[in-house]
């Protein structure tokens, strides 16, 4: 059963955590790993280094959009290929993310969290929430 009084705040918590995670990972790639270092890493795992900037920008812009709730649920679904790509890169390393080169459970969790956000919706305090299908208009009090 869903508590309709509190569910929007649960969705808000999910949205904020997911948005901050994308922003943090973009920052990590931009400042710590550097774009050249991230491009080199992509090359080492068999992906084109040219994907570095699009991935970093998608994580940064997408993270902010999710955080503030600007079409957040759509952005979460659109970022699923980034998360699934990370999952495929980390899958050979085993389960635990603190394994050498990181395991696959964290990217898998994030992909499921992004999918859940896409299904649940943006929740409370969203700047531009997205609603699919016919939504009943609440009666004036």
Write the layout of secondary structure elements.
Elements: H1 7-33, H2 35-44, H3 52-68, H4 72-78, H5 80-90, H6 105-120
Helix pairs in contact: 1-2, 1-3, 1-6, 3-4, 4-6, 5-6
Can I get a quick summary?
By secondary structure, the protein is mainly α.
Key words describing this protein structure:
mainly alpha, membrane, globular, 141 residues
Distance between the termini: 26 Å
From the structure provided, what is the oligomeric state, counting identical versus distinct chains?
single chain
Count of helical regions: 6
| Strand segment count | 0
Measured by DSSP, the beta-strand proportion falls in under 5%
**SSE order, one letter for each helix or strand:** HHHHHH
Q: For the report, how would you describe the main beta sheet?
A: none
């Amino acid at each position: 059963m869903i508590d309709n009084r509190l569910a929007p705040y649960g969705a808000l918590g999910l949205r904020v955590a997911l948005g901050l995670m994308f922003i943090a990972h973009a920052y990590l790639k931009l400042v710590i790993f550097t774009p050249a270092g991230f491009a080199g890493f992509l090359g080492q795992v068999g992906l084109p280094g040219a994907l570095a900037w699009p991935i970093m920008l998608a994580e940064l812009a997408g993270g902010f959009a999710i955080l503030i709730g600007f079409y957040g649920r759509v952005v979460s679904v659109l970022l699923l290929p980034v998360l699934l790509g990370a999952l495929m890169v980390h899958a050979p390393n085993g389960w635990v993310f603190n394994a050498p080169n990181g395991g696959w459970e964290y990217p898998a969790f994030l992909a499921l969290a992004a999918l859940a956000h896409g299904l649940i919706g943006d929740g409370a305090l969203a700047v531009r929430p997205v609603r699919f299908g016919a939504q009943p208009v609440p009666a004036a009090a």
